Amino acid sequence: MASNSKGIVRFVKDIKNELKRITWASKEEVKKAVSVVSVICAIYIVLIAIADAIFKAGVTQILDKL
Q1: Which residue, 62, 38, 13, is CA-closest to 5?
Q2: d(Cα 14, Cα 52) in Å, to the nearest integer?
Q3: C-beta of residue 25 within 8 angstroms of C-beta of residue 33
Q4: Domain spans of the chain, in order of start
Q5: d(CA 14, CA 49)
Q6: pLDDT digit string (tens) for 12-52?
Q7: Cα gap 3→11, rounded to integer Å
Q8: I want to staple 29 with a disulfide (CB 3.0 to 4.6 A). Which of 17, 21, 25, 50 is the partner?
Q9: Nearest of 60, 57, 39 to residue 49 by alpha carbon
């Protein structure tokens, strides 16, 4: 059991050391990335809504003819 707890402590220390080595993005870089992702998501939502409306109209016309 003692060796297991030493392993866990070493594991946590290794994680802490790895986190120190990471180059984190600046606040401005994160803001820009969030903005870009938000705009792309909004465009995607609009395109999917348009495609949905077109398919719905098409399916409705087909089913009305039956």
Answers
A1: 13
A2: 50
A3: yes
A4: 24-66
A5: 47
A6: 999 999 999 999 999 999 999 999 999 999 999 999 999 99
A7: 12
A8: 25
A9: 57
